[in-house]
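Course assignment 3, question 2. Fill in each field.
Student: A.L.
Task: Predict the tertiary structure for the chain below.
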Amino acid sequence: MTRLVLGSSSPFRKALLEKLDLSFDCDSPDIDETPLKNESPKDMVVRLAKLKAQAIAVRHPQSIIIASDQCATLDGNIIGKPGDHAGAVEQLTNASGRAVTFYTSLCVYNAGTNQFEECIEPFYVYFRELSQEQIENYLNKEQPYNCAGSFKSEGLGISLFERLEGNDPNTLIGLPLIQLIKMLERFHVKVI
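Answer field:
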């Protein structure tokens, strides 16, 4: 059987892929993720997922590589990881009562045959109207400073939301498993 490699250093993506009970290795792609001038968020995540897959393929030339990239947007502008408490307060204050769109791209690459499968999954997070006290309480408890949008939906971050909208809840965490299963099957990798 062809080896599977997850091209990511994200513990969240690793945990998601483990749900499929497949044997796989992890390797960090270490690519430049700087957006290109005038590049749309959708184009950026698709480009970066493919670059990650190609970077991993150099070290794993006969493997099937799974790579993903994600960005959050508010009013069409990319929201990055806040980095610290002040950045997270600003992000959550801006998102209060509004919708944040996440674009998650997925690239499955058979390095041995040079075949790609790609897709992009949008996911919409509708925030409740949040008070400054709620924002501070949440951030002090969960400290999601390494998460785009300043929340962890798989944890207490769920308390910030009015509703979630998308085809696959795993997409929000960073790996659209429903699409991944379909793509892997096209490469003759069976989950069940």
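Instructor remarks: The mean pLDDT is 95. The first helix runs from residue 11 to 18.
Grade: pending
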